[in-house]
Queue: 2 jobs
Job 1
Amino acid sequence: MPITEVEKIWMDGELVDWRDATIHVLSHALHYGSGVFEGIRAYETPRGAAVWHLDEHLHRLARSAKLYHLDIPFSHEALAEATKDVIRANRLDACYIRPIAFRGYGEMGVNPLLAPVNVTIAVWPWGAYLGEEALEQGVRIKISSWRRNGPNSLPSAAKATGQYINGVLAKIESLKAGYDEAIMLNEQGSVTDGSGENVFIVRGGVLTTPPIQAGCLDGITRVAVMTLARDLGYEVTQENLVRTDLYNADECFFTGTAAEVTPIREVDDRVIGEGHRGPVTKELQGAFFAATKGENEKYASWLTYVNA
Ligand code: PPE
């Protein structure tokens, strides 16, 4: 998806011009995938831009960094302020936010421990991840022939840049085969997640999503949607799923910061439910967007106002 350029990027404590936010080709992270990152969104609300679950995202960034012994030279509070600053500097009402902490320039070789750590936060307007029409019509997905990296190889508890090369394989395979997105199974054959989304099914009015131990990212949208669903009176369970659970579901959908709540209308050429967005998915999408836009006071604590 092409990037929409804005004016400023926060880089190691300063706001720099978009074009000046560059790094050296011998940066450690480029060669060894030694970075940790987040994907966050800010939404337009009647009180201006508000960041969705900012603290949770920064906590997950810290957990990812801990796994790789990467010391982020900025506090949680400093990164939260920087996020608000860069949104204000670019005068954006709604945007995607990409903080990344990575091993920079100065050392070569796999050992990352002596390389400097750089931190940047970029923001830009980013529409619907899988296309605007996907939010209503749903997407067609393929179960990938590539297995998801497991807890003792590249642990999905961390959101590290190098780990995404696993999802890149699955995504390419699905696109070349004519689908919109992939879902990966783990080595045991249980469903994990998409290349950039968690997955839910609806069966007889009950929502089920794989447990994070299956090998999916501990998605922040996943947790928010579980809460929204329970608050709407739905039973929600976390259970291992096999591919036929997806084929036979009444409804199926993705969640993610970028993907938001995206219906899945086909899995491996099997039509799910009526072949378009189902009623439970629609209701959850409505609840999700109402919360992101600050229209539901119950979830006010999920938003951090940029101009508070
Ligand atoms: N699984 C994966 C593998 C994943 O990358 C994401 C986020 C999720 C699940 C959902 O997590 P959360 O955003 O916390 O609800 N993917 C991010 C990056 C996508 C990209 O293409 O880059 C995102 O949605 O920001």
Job 2
Amino acid sequence: MLVGVALNGTDDLQESLAELAALADTAGSEVVGTVTQVRREIDPAYFIGRGKAEELARLCAEVRADLVIVDHELSPAQARNLENLLGVRVVDRTELILDIFAKRARTKQAMLQVELAQLQYQLPRLRRMWQHLSRLGGGIGTRGPGETQLEVDQRRAKKRIAELQRQLQEIQRQTSARVQTRKERNLFTVALVGYTNVGKSTLMNALTKAQVFVEDRLFATLDATTRVLVLPDGHKVLLTDTIGFIRNLPPHLIASFHATLEEVRTADLLLHVADASHPALDERIAVVERTLQEIGASGKPTILVLNKADQLPPDWDRQRFKRRYPNALLVSALTGEGLDELKERIYAEYARQRLVRLHAQLTLQAQEVVAFAFRHGTVRRLEYHETAIVLEAELERHLAERVQKQVAERGWGNATITPVQG
Ligand code: GDP
Ligand code: MG
């Protein structure tokens, strides 16, 4: 049984509940009904009103629901009170998402992150779990000398949390080292971000022809996966697939995915992927932008990629769209529509950030400069004259500067550097 509360007129309750139903389905539950309430403020004891809670209890008994999922974060006391009144287990949105995360985690890092988030969430709620046990008569004989079982458990949980944090810090250190190596090797990194289930992994596959785990489920990807993307002109950049964002992701949950999100924070370019065919498109774009802000990744160069173009209804208003998102690209990861243009846009951004044009008048001894330009850049002009070589090539700035220095040191003529565009 799903429960949603609209706290004010602007709350998009139906959309949020549809998503909660999809999450419940992903977690393996079957939704048998939905109860909603419009309130000015939440009830401190039951979250919903006392009368509504009693109605919910009758309904649960009637359809024999064995789980209530509330579309908000409950305080430990509210969850306890509701469970006592309803006589069935009550979980909130966060617990549901954590449960899905736990099932989906594949790498060590993801598993540790999920366990940490779960423990941090449970710690203030341990009392509630103990109450359950004592109701079953399990409280007898569980006390240690001078310490209640609850205290023992809290101590254990805290110890485990510290241990997980230590292990995660170690992984974080390694991730940072990896990111650092990339930076030193000057690899341009593009990160896919966006709401869950919009087609990020499919797009990654389509762009790199790699097989990344794709599934019509929420949160199929918990771990960052990185592949090489070959751009027009043969330049290579890195493309990183990431976890999907979702509304109302509690801050401590975001924090536990810190290491994964470092990929997003350190990327040179973000591809914000959205599902163009989704009715809540605008709102979801806003949720992702807010999340990017929360994790300290806003203000980065970003391309808005509107995916699933193949799924748009015929009467879909492309003009409104162009007005609203003038710089967005409409693509379909499934049919390949718009992907060449997307690669061009990635290339343009890469060129803008990284490439310069080298103009060189070289002596005939400078053959290896020409070879270098062919190997590491794009040669735009090459002329052999009787006593000189004229070369124009696009290169990454640090490489062009290296060439410039070499030419000057060896007396091989002269070389100047200008921006690629303009
Ligand atoms: P992610 O959660 O953002 O990584 O999304 P996935 O790549 O796992 O895709 C979620 C679902 O959307 C899958 O069922 C995909 O087949 C589907 N999908 C992805 N791209 C497209 C597209 O361009 N068109 C359509 N019709 N479906 C797509
Ligand atoms: Mg994915």
